[in-house]
Amino acid sequence: MPVIDEVVLREAFGGGTGLVLNSPNTMEYYKTFDATRKAWNWCLHCERAYPQGSYRQVRNLQMCPYQGCDGDVVTDLWAWWKVRGGNPTYPQVPALGVQYSLRES
């Protein structure tokens, strides 16, 4: 799992309140689906990747860590390797803040 400086993550995600970083053991997705833990996740709503264990806590919901995104990390999270599997030119390690469409243009 990548360890990225928290200052870098806060800047990439837009700061704000409720941001949880580097905490994969608290993510509901992994508890709910007993999912294999991979290093990067991807959000179906904003189409951006983020390191596993990052999310924004909004009341009782765990949301995509990017400010302004309404993606839920339980239902809208995809493993980066799955997105990349359909897009072989995408990098193995995605860049923070870059949008990656499910289908390459």
Structural commentary:
The protein is of the alpha+beta class and 105 residues long. It has one domain (6-85). The chain is 19% helix and 18% strand. The protein is built from three helices and six strands, in the order αβαβββββα. The strands form two sheets. Strands 1-4-5 form a three-stranded antiparallel beta sheet, with no helix packed on it. It has a three-stranded antiparallel beta sheet with strand order 3-2-6. It is globular and about 35 Å long. The mean pLDDT is 83.
Topology:
Blueprint: H1 6-13, E1 19-20, H2 28-33, E2 40-43, E3 49-51, E4 55-58, E5 61-63, E6 77-79, H3 80-85
Antiparallel strand pairs: 1-4, 2-3, 2-6, 4-5
State the domain count.
1
- Shape summary: globular
Name the helicity range.
Answer: 10-25%
Oligomer: single chain
Q: Major β-sheet, in short?
A: 3 strands, antiparallel
Average pLDDT rating: 83
Strand proportion: 15-25%
Q: Which class do the helix and strand fractions yield?
A: alpha+beta
| Rg estimate, integer Å | 13 Å
Total strands = 6
Q: What is the end-to-end distance?
A: 29 Å
* Tally of contiguous helical segments: 3
Contiguous uncertain segments of 5+ residues:
none
Offer a quick outline of the entry:
It contains 3 helices and 6 strands, in the order H-E-H-E-E-E-E-E-H. The protein is an alpha+beta fold. The chain has one domain.
Question: What labels describe this entry?
Answer:
single chain, 105 residues, alpha+beta, three-stranded antiparallel β-sheet, 3 helices, 19% helix, globular
